[in-house]
């Protein structure tokens, strides 16, 4: 295998990176020989000049593929465009002023091809030479492939070149082609460089064909249309009649239509094809690493798609339609749906626990953090507790269509403000499979459609829970009321659907929440960190304080409402309160980290940051001068989730409760009480630290909005001349 020239950029190893690839791209492990077709739009810039930066990056990738033992065959367009630009310049230089005033005749395409082919090949030769790679030019015509002898010789020549790690570069020989015109005649064995690439992939027994374009892949409509979505895997039966193609390539022969036709033909012949952008500097390498980029065409693609696997938009629209069916049935029927779901969960408890245990075992084998595994596991009795929470939710007053306010606008004209479902919710959550049950039950109770995306570590748990719940929903409502998103790659498409998805609620890490907020126009509700504080005032009952502190930290350390920082009044240090609390936490196995003052005082490691969520049996301890400094500390380092004061001094307590600006503020009670079920909400979709719409544990009410219902008997505005406004509050009728 060739050695790497000094100074060559080191690109990522390919074969070793295939462990976590998408299952639909697993075939790349076996790719040895590939054909790469480079479109004219990749080779040239918008002004027709060569795109030297893109070509340089392309050649670097091919160099890397050579080093790693791949056999690379190129098909490159661009010769006609490049030749046309050069001949136009030559014509301009040789023309008189009078000549330029005459109507300009379009240049002969075959002459352009003849000039451009040598220029294009000279450029490739120069770029590859800098990388110590040898290339060879092979010009072919449609007529050549009619000869069996030619095909045999072609295979022998290419095999000889590849054995010497030479990169063959094919192009249609437009200069001597018998076509009427390079951009008009689409007949024959191949009719452009896309179909030539597909033909060569088949003829030369390639394992993969990559078609490089000026867009990310195949879209459902013109890529410039914001409603268009990237198609990850092309299914002919589904997508053939669904796609709306945009304009032809600005410079090439057929644009995306030609690429799709070539890709479909190659895939049907057993050659996998990926259409992806040639603008990104390492896309070829990413394809061979199994990354889910571009659009894949594969003969088995229809087998990978389950019947319920529909597009992001279809899923969201179906959820909205089903939610309207849910809202149309009676309150009693909606209550029965919830009770049926609760019964179904208990009836399938054994199967649910079996799938969850498989997820936990896989997570342990993969070396996931203990805190994540703790959130992943469904503890004994959890399913029963979830079912009972759903029954509590079912017994609550029906939240849909409640009249919140009645106002008489004028005589006989009554306005009602009523509660109404938001519409379609998208919930993205990590690790916790019980979250799926809570969120689904809340969606049913509030009349909302729902799309769920859980973490891959809970894939089996989420799948069985989703099946049990949707099977319990009557056909008259529709099982697609609750959609389960199974691919991470669908999330970007869903986040674009601000016309059909009404609210996104991310439940997970700060990174997850931040990424979602930055990626969508849809309103986002949720919290990122759960950095909950407990402040122990000097007036605290220390026996009570120890009990609350241990519970807040130890009861469920991975929960977002677990204590992460303990603040102690400085006067408790000489009084022995600090030592007693430290002893109690250490006895329970809690690892302690100190703030700047306590770390030296107790000789314990200093916390790397005072704004840190451990999600484990660890916490930070620091001392403060008084309640005011505790409040300042919480505002500076907290996350506005849940904070608690343990104190008997009424003034300190009221100061803390009034001034701490968090979603939940407690006095003499564990932070673990911040929970939808414990608040009597039945369940929670999450805990919001936002200040708009809903804050704290978000139950049914947080998933509702309002509508205005106006009841009249023929009133018209008519410039307000015939209306006497009363604006009188009316009693709400039961």
UniProtKB/TrEMBL annotation:
Q: Name one GO biological process term.
A: L-proline biosynthetic process
Q: What is this protein called?
A: Delta-1-pyrroline-5-carboxylate synthase
MF annotations from Gene Ontology? ATP binding; glutamate 5-kinase activity; glutamate-5-semialdehyde dehydrogenase activity
Q: Where is the Aspartate/glutamate/uridylate kinase domain?
A: 32-277
HAMAP family the UniProt entry points to: ProA, ProB
UniProt entry tagged with the keyword ATP-binding: yes
| Species of the source | Rhodamnia argentea
Q: Which reaction does it catalyse?
A: L-glutamate 5-semialdehyde + phosphate + NADP(+) = L-glutamyl 5-phosphate + NADPH + H(+); L-glutamate + ATP = L-glutamyl 5-phosphate + ADP
Biochemical pathway: Amino-acid biosynthesis; L-proline biosynthesis; L-glutamate 5-semialdehyde from L-glutamate: step 1/2; Amino-acid biosynthesis; L-proline biosynthesis; L-glutamate 5-semialdehyde from L-glutamate: step 2/2
Q: Which family does it belong to?
A: In the C-terminal section; belongs to the gamma-glutamyl phosphate reductase family.
């Amino acid at each position: 295998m060739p050695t790497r020239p000094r100074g060559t950029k080191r690109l990522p190893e390919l074969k070793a990176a295939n462990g976590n690839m998408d299952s639909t791209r697993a075939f790349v492990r076996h790719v040895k020989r590939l054909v790469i077709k480079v479109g004219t739009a990749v080779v040239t810039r918008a002004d027709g000049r060569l795109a030297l930066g893109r070509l340089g990056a392309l050649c670097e990738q091919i160099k890397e593929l050579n080093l790693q033992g791949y056999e690379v065959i190129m098909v490159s367009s661009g010769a006609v465009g490049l030749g046309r630009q050069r001949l136009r310049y030559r014509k301009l230089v040789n023309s008189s002023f009078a000549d330029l005033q005459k109507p300009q005749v379009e240049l002969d395409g075959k002459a352009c091809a003849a000039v451009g082919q040598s220029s294009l090949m000279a450029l490739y030769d120069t770029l590859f030479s800098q990388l110590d790679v040898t290339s060879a030019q092979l010009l072919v015509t449609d007529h050549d492939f009619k000869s069996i002898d030619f095909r045999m010789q072609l295979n022998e020549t290419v095999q000889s070149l590849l054995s010497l790690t030479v990169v063959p570069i094919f192009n249609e020989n437009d200069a001597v082609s018998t076509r009427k015109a390079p951009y008009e005649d689409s007949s024959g064995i191949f009719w452009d460089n896309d179909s030539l690439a597909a033909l060569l992939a088949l003829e030369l027994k390639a394992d993969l064909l990559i078609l490089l374009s000026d867009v990310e892949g195949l879209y459902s409509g013109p890529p410039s249309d914001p409603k268009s979505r990237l198609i990850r895997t092309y299914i002919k039966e589904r997508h053939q009649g669904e796609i709306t193609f945009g304009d032809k390539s600005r410079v090439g022969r057929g644009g995306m239509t030609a690429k799709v036709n070539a890709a479909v033909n190659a895939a049907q012949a057993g050659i996998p094809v990926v259409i992806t952008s040639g603008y990104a500097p390492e896309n070829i390498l990413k394809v061979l690493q199994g990354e889910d980029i571009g659009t894949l065409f594969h003969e088995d693609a229809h087998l990978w798609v389950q019947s319920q696997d529909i597009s992001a938009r279809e899923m969201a629209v179906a959820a909205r339609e089903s939610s309207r069916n849910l809202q149309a049935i009676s309150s009693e029927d909606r209550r029965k749906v919830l009770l049926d779901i609760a019964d179904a969960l208990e009836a399938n408890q054994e199967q649910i626990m079996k799938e969850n245990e498989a997820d936990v075992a896989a997570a342990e084998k993969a070396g996931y953090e203990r805190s994540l595994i703790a959130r992943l596991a469904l503890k004994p009795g959890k399913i029963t507790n979830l079912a009972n929470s759903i029954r509590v939710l079912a017994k609550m007053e029906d939240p849909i269509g409640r009249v919140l306010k009645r106002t008489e606008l004028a005589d006989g004209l009554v306005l009602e403000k009523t509660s109404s479902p938001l519409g379609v919710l998208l919930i993205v959550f990590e690790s916790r499979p019980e979250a799926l049950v809570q969120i689904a039950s809340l969606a049913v109770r509030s009349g909302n459609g729902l799309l769920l995306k859980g973490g891959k570590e809970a894939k089996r748990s989420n799948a069985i829970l989703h099946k049990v719940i949707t099977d319990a929903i009557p056909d008259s409502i529709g099982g697609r009321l609750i959609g389960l998103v199974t691919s991470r790659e669908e999330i970007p498409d869903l986040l674009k659907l601000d016309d059909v998805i009404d609210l996104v609620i991310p439940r997970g890490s700060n990174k997850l929440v931040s990424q979602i907020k930055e990626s969508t126009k849809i309103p986002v509700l949720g919290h990122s960190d759960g950095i909950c504080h407990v402040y122990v005032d000097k007036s605290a009952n220390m026996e009570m304080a120890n009990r609350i502190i241990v519970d807040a930290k130890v009861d469920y350390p991975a929960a977002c409402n677990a204590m992460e920082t303990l603040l102690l009044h400085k006067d408790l240090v000489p009084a022995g309160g600090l030592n007693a609390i430290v002893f109690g936490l250490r006895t329970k196995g809690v690892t302690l980290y100190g703030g700047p003052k306590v770390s030296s005082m107790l000789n314990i490691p200093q916390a790397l940051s005072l704004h840190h969520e451990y999600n484990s049996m660890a916490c930070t301890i620091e001392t403060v001068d008084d309640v005011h400094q505790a409040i300042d500390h919480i505002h500076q380092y907290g996350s506005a989730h849940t904070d608690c004061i343990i104190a008997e001094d009424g003034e300190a307590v009221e100061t803390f409760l009034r001034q701490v600006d968090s979603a939940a503020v407690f006095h003499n009670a564990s932070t673990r009480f911040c929970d939808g079920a414990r608040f009597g909400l039945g369940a929670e979709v999450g805990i919001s630290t936002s200040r708009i719409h809903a804050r704290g544990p978000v139950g049914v009410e947080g998933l509702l909005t309002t509508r205005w219902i106006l009841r009249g008997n023929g009133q018209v505005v008519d410039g307000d001349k015939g209306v006497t406004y009363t604006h009188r509050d009316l009693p709400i009728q039961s």
